Amino acid sequence: MTLPITEATPVRFAASLPPRADVVVIGGGVIGVMTSYFLAKKGLSVTLLEKGRIAGEQSSRNWGWVRQQGRDPAELPIMVESLSLWKSLSAVLGDALGFRQTGVLYLAKTEREMQGFADWLPHGRAHQLDTRLLTAAETTALLKGAVAPWKGALFTASDARAEPWTAVPALAAMAQDLGVTIIEACAVRALDLAAGQVAGVVTEQGRLPCDHVILAAGAWSRLFLARHGIAIPQLSVLASVAATEPMPEIFSGNAADDDFAFRRRADGGYSIAPGGSQHDFFLGPDAFRSFRAFWPQIRTGLRATTFRAAAPKGFPDAWTTPRRWEEDQPTPFEVTRILNPAPNLKTLGTVQDAFARAFPGLGRPKLKTAWAGMIDTMPDVVPIIDHAPIPGLTLATGMSGHGFGIGPGMGRVVADLVTGGQIGHDLSRFRFARFTDGTKVAPGPSL
User: What is the DSSP-derived secondary structure letter of residue 39?
Assistant: First the structure.
């Protein structure tokens, strides 16, 4: 499968709408897919509805990192579980996942960055991670031909990589084999409510009764919830990525500094992207409504952000996107089946230049293809994993660019949250009410 997945990509999952379901999952990214899988393992009848294609948005457009290193402390134990699940899933699905434990390397140009790495180390040690600080000499020894003046690095050898555009559809096929009904090109227009609680969903193909709904709609979650009177401070940023032509191997894993990031690909090239959380941000009505909530992020990441005047037509926060619609009429989710923004080629050009400076023996990497995705993010850069104010609705959204790697573990957690099982982790940092109960909402000690 090649990127990007678009509306022209053939529909692979085309089941018929069933007469009813125990649980409906909205959104066919990795979180929705893995939640459906674990619910089906519990014996529930599950229908997963995706307005576009499985993994059509950020779940196939991300870097492909499966990392424990640098996680928010509240996410870390779930990520440790997730890595274990990736290993067991890979044993079943094989090369379809492209899973390899080749390590994650964070590169530091300054002593301040090295101190930040050192400050995070206790969180890794608390979960018995193999994370360690490397000297400058140890760092360059890992990277063939590197000449960049890095002070050192943070390295977790057990961390991994996978191929998003093949992995998530393969996981969806596994869920389907377990009994999950998956329907692509079937948008959910609204919740079907009775006496103030979930009775089902209204889709473009008709009504589907169910007992419970899980919203895992990524960048579209805020728009969907607003129609039902639920407000969340979720915004989306554009992240550009490129795949290079095949190149000699300089490092088999994933690495990043504040200029560029790269991951070895199964085809012999590298996925490259801006480092340092560089992104493009579109100014839409929701952006202005959420300015105060996101100010801590804006203030610290101002230099890494390219502001754009307005989101393209059809995007969730575009000025022309309707915030209200009728259930019997096409919705914004049908107007834009897949968010397929153009990558920022200027930004990717600077990435190519930075790569060439760090590895002069290889020269400027030639790009095979480039793409962009919209990352759904929260003010504190951790998701909402909680029941919503509407009984029967659970939220699993706002993964803030961390969803691919943590997907299997988070899917298991959400499945147990819905069914009253043993969650095994403290979810209080991810609660819905943190935005209204006076909690100071700010990013935690992650990298």
Answer: H
